[in-house]
């Protein structure tokens, strides 16, 4: 093999090996995860707007939403190298926390919530979803490696 | 016949151009996000304090919102951590492109 051929072989192998190494740190973009987060943001904010009303009237909707949120968390957890996004989901839906999970739990415990509290929590939860969506949309599309 | 020193010299210049272009952009992005978060936190706190004073928010509501802001800050920090990892991946890939490009320019 000539020197030129050796250099050509080396150069062609380098990007691939480096890409494999560098991609190990964080997952690539998933259109499904992105869509899931956007849809759940809309559904969550919509349901939250009814929290000034009695919880019992919306119990079924809350249970359904919690199921969808759990699915999103599990989907995130199941993706390789996706620990950061999964931790974001965990904080968002944690019943002991003070974002969406905690809000829904408080609604259940207290029966109904004040108007200003609900609207301010909608702002926080909206921003919280945006951190998940923002990270997902910033991920590298797998097609960029082809 | 180009020498290895020619390659190193080309590579140095190409890497410098690459760094100037990319690092400035990332620095601006991070500063913008951080400033925006602080400004939002300040205006939130002003509204909540007013709500507490007028009775629109209870003490429990106020505390819940403050803790919620702390949770949100954690999520924002995680987003920034993730985006930093993505930037490292992109920069690493970019550096490889520069190395390969410089070598091709010099030797082939």
Quick structural summary:
With 146 residues, chain A is mainly alpha-helical. Chain A has helices at 3-22, 31-48, 59-78, 83-93, 100-110, 115-138. Chain A is built from six helices and no strands.
Description:
The complex is a heterodimer of chains A (146) and B (108). By secondary structure, chain A is an all-alpha fold. Chain A has one domain. Chain A contains six helices and no strands. In chain A, helix 3 (59-78) packs antiparallel against helix 4. The radius of gyration of chain A is 21 Å and the shape is elongated. Chain A starts with a helix and ends in an 8-residue tail after the last helix. The model of chain A has no long low-confidence stretch (mean pLDDT 89). Chain B has 108 residues and is mainly α. Chain B has one domain. Chain B has helices spanning 4-54, 59-107. In chain B, helix 1 packs antiparallel against helix 2 (59-107). Chain B is rod-shaped. Chain B starts with a helix and ends with a helix.
